[in-house]
């Protein structure tokens, strides 16, 4: 990888260590999405941000802008001595804002200065906010159907969603494209690569998890819904551009979609 990507990956690792160093965040947050796949399950394509869900079973932790800022700051301070990288919390914002929201995502940005960037570290020590920052999304009230503990190094561990859980969430996101008027180009590729990998997802588990995740968002699930042309057309938008972001495996869209649809047809979900 080039310098820019290597730097970004090191910063992501540093932030994951910071989260692991706080006992509450370590117990409550579960890494998910593309970077969970890339870091833990099958290295192929990384994304700029880190995506987490708060485990609904973590009754001792009530996320808010202030509590997340406090906990993230504590973790960021812990990694400076061992890793030499300075991290500071630029901001934590609730989206959508307001009280009594059911599905909330806290968008955080963590500014960073590497060990050889003393000029940036001096500016950060003086309280200046650095524009260069790593984005983090932390969702609440999202079902976590299966997670495991993963070793970051010989001391730190991090909770991460299993392959089956990640695939189920990506399938739900594919169905939500039309509902939300969005496009999801990355999900078809990620699932197809996993299906051809050494540890493919388990269809039985994925089907059960998909139904649970979709029910939480009132998304209708059926095998027929995945074959609706609009779903494929939205997923196709920008898909070819992913070829430049993959390290080991890129599957052309039509082939990848066929793999995904064949897998969907094996899931224990309604046909219509």
Report on the architecture of this protein:
With 272 residues, the chain is an alpha+beta fold. The chain folds into two domains: 3-161, Nuclear Transport Factor 2, Chain: A; 163-264, no CATH class. 47% of the residues lie in helices and 17% in strands. It has a five-stranded mixed beta sheet with strand order 1-2-5-4-3. The chain has a two-stranded antiparallel sheet with strand order 6-7. Helix 8 crosses helix 12.
What layout of secondary structure does this protein have?
Layout: H1 3-21, H2 23-28, E1 29-32, H3 33-41, E2 50-54, H4 65-78, H5 80-83, E3 86-95, E4 105-113, H6 118-125, E5 133-139, E6 147-151, E7 157-161, H7 163-180, H8 185-195, H9 203-216, H10 223-226, H11 229-236, H12 253-264
Parallel strand pairs: 2-5
Antiparallel strand pairs: 1-2, 3-4, 4-5, 6-7
Helix pairs in contact: 1-4, 3-7, 7-8, 7-9, 7-11, 8-12
Quick overview of this protein structure:
With 272 residues, the protein is an alpha+beta fold. The chain is built from 12 helices and 7 strands. The longest helix has 19 residues.
Mean pLDDT across all amino acids:
94
Regions with pLDDT < 50 over 5+ consecutive residues?
none
Strand content: 15-25%
Class by SSE composition: alpha+beta
User: How far apart are the termini?
Assistant: 45 Å
CATH class of the largest domain: Alpha Beta
Q: Could you tell me the radius of gyration in angstroms?
A: 19 Å
- Biggest sheet strand order reads 1-2-5-4-3
Question: In CATH terms, what is the fold-level topology of the largest domain?
Answer: Nuclear Transport Factor 2, Chain: A
Along the chain, the helix and strand elements come as HHEHEHHEEHEEEHHHHHH
Name the shape in a single word. globular
Multimeric status of the protein: single chain
Please, how many domains? 2
Q: Give the helix proportion (percent range).
A: 40-55%
- Count of individual helical segments: 12
| Largest β-sheet summary | 5 strands, mixed
The CATH level-2 architecture of the largest domain is identified as Roll
């Amino acid at each position: 990888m080039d310098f820019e990507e290597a730097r970004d990956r090191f910063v992501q690792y540093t932030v994951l260590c910071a989260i692991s160093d706080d006992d509450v965040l370590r117990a409550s947050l579960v890494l998910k999405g593309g970077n969970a796949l890339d870091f833990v399950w099958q290295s192929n394509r990384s994304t700029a941000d880190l995506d987490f869900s708060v485990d609904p079973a973590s009754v001792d932790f009530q996320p808010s802008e202030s509590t997340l800022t406090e906990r993230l700051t504590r973790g960021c301070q812990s990694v400076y001595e061992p890793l030499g990288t300075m991290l500071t919390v630029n901001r934590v914002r609730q989206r959508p804002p307001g009280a009594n929201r059911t599905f909330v995502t806290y968008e955080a940005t963590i500014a960073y200065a590497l060990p050889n960037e003393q000029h940036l570290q001096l500016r950060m020590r003086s309280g200046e906010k650095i524009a260069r920052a790593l984005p983090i999304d932390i969702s609440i009230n999202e079902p976590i159907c299966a997670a495991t503990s993963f070793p970051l190094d010989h001391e730190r561990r991090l909770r991460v969603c299993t392959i089956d859980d990640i695939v189920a969430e990506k399938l739900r996101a594919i169905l939500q494209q039309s509902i939300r008027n969005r496009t999801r180009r990355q999900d078809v590729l990620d699932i197809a690569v996993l299906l051809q990998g050494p540890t493919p997802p388990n269809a039985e588990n994925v089907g059960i998890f998909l139904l649970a995740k979709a029910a939480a968002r009132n998304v209708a699930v059926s095998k027929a819904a995945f074959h609706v042309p609009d779903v494929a057309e939205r997923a196709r938008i920008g898909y070819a551009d992913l070829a430049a972001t993959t390290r080991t495996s890129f599957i052309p869209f039509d082939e990848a979609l066929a793999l995904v649809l064949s897998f969907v047809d094996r899931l224990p979900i309604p046909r219509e």
